[in-house]
């Protein structure tokens, strides 16, 4: 897996170059004054990415981490998609429908089949969370 | 700094009814989370931070410290009963705890673990209380140049000690610097990487970021890797009938007093070094105890010395890891980093000045730590049998509930759906960082320390007029920079080889 490590180094160095050549000049736009240069610290980060990426390419050693399978990546995309979709709908539908829907999707995706556990997760957990934040901690939820 | 009235008033503040109730709640939550395989103390701390917003600073910190302490005790339960560590630091406890449980003495093994954990935790707290204030006085002698050099040392040490590669550790730290620079520049108030979004003008919120990177990334990993038809591990039932098999006498505890004292020293030293954590302490202490024993062949068969060595050492880390935080303002591990974020949310900047500016709070926190130890002991004594049932809770339900708490916590903590989206993005970033072996510890510590680091750089440049030769007037800074270079040399390429041989710090990366 040394190739993966070198590719990570290439990615890091390219990101550093992107920061220094495009992102910092474009998105850090303040003037340099006596009190400081707003781009000074981001540039340190950019140079670190560039130099460390180069070092990673040169001194990469085989790593123990294994890349996930396509199936695992697919599941990751599904979980993240469910969370993004649910969170987008949160202000519209309100907390309880949002959380019950999200719990139902997650319970399905983690292959839970026992009815009492499904009921607890879809109904009990959202109501418990709502009680904790809205009633006990007095933090308003939509 | 050593005002007795202040100390007494601080300790008294810790003993209010509200505080004690939150300490009890924190210990119970910590023990439950620790006993639940798949959940970690860090996850519990990240989720608990939004809960503390409405509390006063001392109650909030007491609650979080209690969650941390409870988790250390709870983590031993699944280690002993199902040979699956509830938390990474209790992995070494399984080496002798589980064989003892299999011999029909599960309650005895749990009680051994509890008593030595209590001893390690309480003793390291006392050490912290005794040495933190004098060390903070020394730390106050340092100026911006020395502080800058100290931070460089902290980053090289942390990057070298956690994860498998120093280069990756430093890259993770660079990513932390970058994300922390989002928002208005502190010196000129110019926007940096805000992309025209008003929500980003205040920067990325620490709570949403830590909930996403620390808790949700781990939950995502667990959920993605859940297999169809996966069942909870079979637990050893606690049904010892004889007193001999369920009771631990004073004589039995004291029989391992030298082992426990050595483990306390190991745990305290490891805890005080930024970047190392309870897992290293537990395994190192176990290994030294076994090597120095006359009968090493007994280890791994249910020997109480094995439990004493691991539980004392891993619990001693909990107090000791606050030493660099309170004396230098540098969080040594993620639990300490999360405490920093909780302090900062309440407008308190950790570091040596804390003793001068918030002395009452610091001594209140010390008082709360001592109370939490006794609550930990008392609650575990009564609830050990119940926690043994908690370990069979299905991961599917646990993951889903924890995920909802995370999203809701981020939502209420940092202003709505934007913060929830930040948490989701950081969960994916954290997941990818874990997958490619980049240290989340280095990333979070860098994110938290960046404002202070940036300030130190500006001040150091003004003091030295940008002339590096002016460093000769700062011998402490030179010594710290030399140590940084030495740590790069010794923990970089050489450290990598050693780590690959031992592969001990992997667990620390999870919980450090």
TrEMBL record, chain A:
Keywords: Membrane, Transmembrane, Transmembrane helix. The keyword Transmembrane applies. Residues 16-142 form the DUF1468 domain. The chain crosses the membrane at residues 7-28, 40-61, 73-96, 116-133. The keyword Repressor does not apply. It comes from the Bacteria. Pfam families: TctB. The lineage of its organism: Bacteria, Pseudomonadati, Pseudomonadota, Gammaproteobacteria, Oceanospirillales. This is Putative tricarboxylic transport membrane protein. It comes from Marinomonas balearica.
UniProtKB/TrEMBL annotation, chain B:
InterPro entries: DUF112_TM (IPR002823). The keyword NADP does not apply. The chain crosses the membrane at residues 6-29, 41-65, 114-140, 147-180, 325-349, 361-384, 396-413, 419-449, 470-492. Residues 21-444 form the DUF112 domain. Keywords: Membrane, Transmembrane, Transmembrane helix. The keyword Transmembrane applies. Pfam families: TctA. PANTHER family: TRICARBOXYLIC TRANSPORT PROTEIN. This is Putative tricarboxylic transport membrane protein. It comes from Marinomonas balearica.
């Amino acid at each position: 897996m040394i190739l993966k490590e070198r590719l990570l180094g290439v990615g890091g160095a390219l990101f550093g170059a992107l920061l220094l050549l495009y992102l910092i000049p474009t998105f850090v736009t303040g003037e340099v004054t006596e009190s400081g240069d707003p781009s000074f610290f981001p540039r340190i980060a950019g140079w670190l990415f560039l130099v460390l990426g180069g070092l990673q390419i040169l001194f990469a050693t085989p790593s123990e981490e294994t890349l996930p399978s396509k199936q695992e990546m697919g599941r990751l995309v599904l979980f993240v998609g469910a969370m993004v979709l649910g969170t987008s709908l949160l202000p519209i539908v309100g907390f309880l429908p949002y959380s019950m829907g999200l719990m139902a999707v997650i319970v399905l995706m983690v292959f839970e089949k026992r009815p009492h556990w499904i009921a607890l997760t879809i109904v009990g957990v959202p109501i418990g969370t709502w009680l904790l934040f809205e009633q006990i901690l007095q933090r308003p939820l939509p | 700094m050593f005002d007795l009235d202040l100390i007494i008033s601080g300790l008294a503040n810790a003993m209010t009814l509200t505080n004690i109730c939150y300490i009890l709640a924190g210990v119970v939550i910590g023990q439950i989370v620790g006993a639940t395989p798949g959940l970690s103390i860090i996850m519990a701390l990240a989720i608990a931070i939004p809960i503390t917003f409405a509390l006063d600073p001392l109650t909030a910190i007491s609650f979080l410290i209690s969650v941390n302490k409870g988790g250390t005790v709870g983590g031993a339960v699944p280690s002993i009963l199902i040979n699956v560590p509830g938390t990474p630091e209790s992995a070494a406890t399984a080496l002798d705890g589980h064989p003892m449980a299999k011999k029909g003495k599960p309650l005895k093994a749990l009680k051994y673990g509890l008593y030595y954990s209590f001893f390690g935790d309480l003793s390291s707290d006392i050490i912290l209380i005794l040495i933190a204030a004098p060390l903070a006085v020394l730390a106050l002698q340092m100026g911006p140049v020395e502080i800058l050099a100290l931070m460089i040392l902290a980053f090289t040490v942390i990057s070298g000690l956690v994860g498998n590669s120093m280069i990756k550790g430093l890259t993770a730290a660079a990513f932390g610097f970058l994300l922390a620079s989002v928002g208005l520049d502190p010196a000129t108030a110019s926007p940096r990487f805000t992309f025209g979004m008003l929500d980003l003008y205040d920067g990325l919120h620490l709570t949403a970021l830590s909930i996403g990177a620390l808790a949700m990334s781990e939950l995502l990993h667990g959920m993605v890797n859940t297999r169809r038809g996966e069942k909870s591990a079979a637990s050893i039932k606690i049904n010892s009938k004889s007193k001999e098999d369920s009771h631990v006498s004073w004589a039995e505890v004291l029989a391992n007093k030298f082992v426990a004292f050595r483990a306390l020293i190991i745990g305290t030293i490891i805890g005080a070094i930024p970047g190392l954590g309870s897992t290293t302490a537990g395994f190192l202490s176990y290994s030294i105890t076994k090597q120095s024993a006359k009968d090493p062949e007994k280890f791994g068969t249910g020997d109480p010395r094995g439990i004493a060595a691991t539980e004392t050492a891993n619990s001693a880390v909990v107090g000791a890891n606050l030493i660099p935080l309170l004396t230098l303002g540098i969080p040594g591990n993620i639990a300490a980093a999360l405490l920093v974020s909780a302090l900062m949310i309440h407008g308190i900047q950790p570091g040596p000045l804390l003793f001068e500016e918030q002395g009452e709070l610091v001594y209140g926190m010390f008082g709360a730590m001592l109370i939490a130890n006794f609550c930990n002991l008392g609650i575990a004594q009564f609830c050990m049998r119940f926690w043994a049932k908690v370990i069979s809770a299905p991961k599917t339900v646990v993951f889903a509930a924890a995920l909802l708490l995370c999203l809701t916590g981020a939502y209420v903590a940092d202003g709505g759906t934007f913060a929830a989206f930040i948490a989701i993005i950081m969960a994916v970033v954290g997941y990818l960082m874990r997958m490619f072996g980049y240290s989340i510890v280095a990333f979070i510590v860098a994110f938290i320390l960046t404002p202070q680091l940036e300030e130190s750089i500006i001040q150091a440049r003004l003091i030295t007029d940008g002339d590096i030769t002016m460093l000769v007037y700062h011998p402490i800074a030179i010594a710290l920079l030399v140590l940084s270079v030495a740590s790069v040399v010794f923990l970089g390429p050489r450290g990598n080889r050693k780590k690959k041989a031992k592969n001990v710090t992997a667990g620390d990366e999870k919980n450090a």
